[in-house]
Known about the structure:
The chain is mainly α. It has 1 helix and no strands.
Amino acid sequence: MQKASKTVDPTRLRFVLFGLLVGLLTGAVVAAFRLSIERILSFMQSLYRAATPGLLA
């Protein structure tokens, strides 16, 4: 049996770190998109309430 090497392959490490970075950036973009949808929905609801006074509670 061969003894397992304890050295870290720099190429593999670079790809893992790059994948982590891409995942974090993607998560931030998705979170910002969802937050913007929530804020726009609240804004549109307030516009609708202001445009139709007395019809909604």
